[in-house]
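How it folds
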Amino acid sequence: MGFYHVAAMKLWHNPFMSAIPDQTPPPTAETLREAALRHLARFAATEQGLAQVLDRAVMRWARKFATQGGETDQIDSEREKSRAVIAAIVSDMRRIGALDDAAFARSRSLSLTRSGRSRRAVAASLTQKGIGAETLGEAMEEALGHRHDDEAKERELAAALVLARKRRLGPFSRDEGEMARSDAGEVHQRALAIFARAGFGRDVAEQALALDLTEAEDRVMALKSS
């Protein structure tokens, strides 16, 4: 048996042999950090959101590695190690100011309100993105005002009017004769149901439906430009 054949046999049976050469290596701390920076250069994100982006990158590797014959134990081990790496990257992004959940919550509170989302819907959206309750409360009060302040009430009414314009409700009804030809009570109740599903209170919905078109448009424009 020749020297090269013996060497090859030893390599083949080496229990410490690395993964098959054509298998995709797992993401490193460096590649995950680069992925984080690329994402943050394009999108605003929360700490939870960035962690999910990086975890999906690891999951893509895991699925590909599995199709290449990778061992389940190795996949599980790499995923476990990646959790600590991702947590460290998120912490570092927060330290350098690339992640700021409070600033994200303030900005998104305003943009969602301008798009016709109720205060309740804004809170639900931001909670889903991983904003903590204390940070959320402070950010929303700073951006939208205290729930019972006149400023906050005005914003909520204006947001309801944005929704009314989108759905052609109340002052934005498509046809002024609609109420005369239809059951006015039924039309009104349908409109209230739309507002309720969007998270607006009954009093806000009634105010929005009662306004005339000129005032409604003025309030919408004021909100959009605020």
Summary: Residues 111 and 117 are 9 Å apart (CA to CA). Confidence is low (pLDDT under 50) at residues 1-18. Residues 72-95 form the longest helix (24 residues).
